[in-house]
Amino acid sequence: MSSNNSGAPLRLLVIVASTRPGRLGPAIADWFVRTATPDADRPDADRPGATPDGITVDVADLADIGLPLLDEPEHPASGSYLHEHTRRWSRRVAAADAFVVVTPEYNFGMPAVLKNALDFLYHEWAWKPVAFVSYGNTSAGTRSVQMAKQVVTTLKMMPIGATVALRIAESTRDGRVVASAALDRAARGVLVELSRVACALRPLRTGAGGNDATVGGPVEGLTLAEARPADLAELLVLQRCCWVQEAFANDTLDLPPLRETLDDLRASLSTWRLWCVRRNGRLVAAVRARTDERAWLIGRLMVAPDQAGNGIGSWLLAYAEGQAPAETTHCALFTGHRSTRNIRLYQRAGYTLSATADDTPDIVHLTKERQLTA
Predict the structure, then answer these.
(1) What is the pTM of this model?
(2) What pLDDT is attached to residue 211?
(3) Under a CB-based contact definition with an 8 Å cutoff, are residues 17 and 101 in contact?
(4) In which region does residue 309 sit, left (phi positive, over 0), alpha (psi from -120 to 50) or beta (all else)?
């Protein structure tokens, strides 16, 4: 989730958009970060803490990230991701407030690996500015930038005017950027403009409360945050509305979510992680999860009845799965044996029915192995 508090550091994601052997991209990205943000807190920096200007930097080398050609069965706009590599990329992009793309030019266009990385996601890119540092021969990579701009604007990103364009023969030597006062000024100018635009766009990424963060979801206007005590009364009402349908489906009112009190909910915050989703300020969905030995237990997945059918449930389930600690091996959940709609949703998400204890014949348990490969 991107930072939306006006006092929070600006989170900059620098994307290295070439993967071929012998590429210049990493050296140019390193030059840009060192020149434009000399005191930034980044993974390879020796000094902790953000700069006085409030910039933190993450460098994402697409060669290291290793995304395959787009392999998600659902449309990226759904926000429902099957593969862990997509979820990792989603979390990294969603955390950023702004982007700098370091890109070469291949045959008058941008590298295929950059287009693929953009196509994997949708909402995570929205309402964030992007700058380009290009490099090439005759055109210094500018035709790659023009092609990329057509794509990023469709993703609701805002390309800024300031750029850096390096001609390889003039600006690099022995695989490094040649020292140049003019290039250094251009790099710093890019960051200044990028920061101003990122701050101006923050209200478009901020929830009604001003502190929740917008997230990539299947519909516009969603914000997601871990539950706070102030959310619990509204959450209790939503929970009861949602489980009335389950009561009818399973022919019983004896369901824990219908018996739960406000004190019970408050106590659950000490043992469960609980996330609330709002749409334009209104609480419309929630889910909770916790570890149980090697399992990541997911529970109380709920979506307001009038919001059902928009993909919010599938998206929120995928989000909860993505929060599983590294030491867990599988996700687990349960639902009523007559809750056919829920069971179908979980099976579409890759869950399979597991053995049911004899003392809980009205409950079905489902599990899903976590994908732990890179």
Answers:
(1) 0.62
(2) 47
(3) yes
(4) left
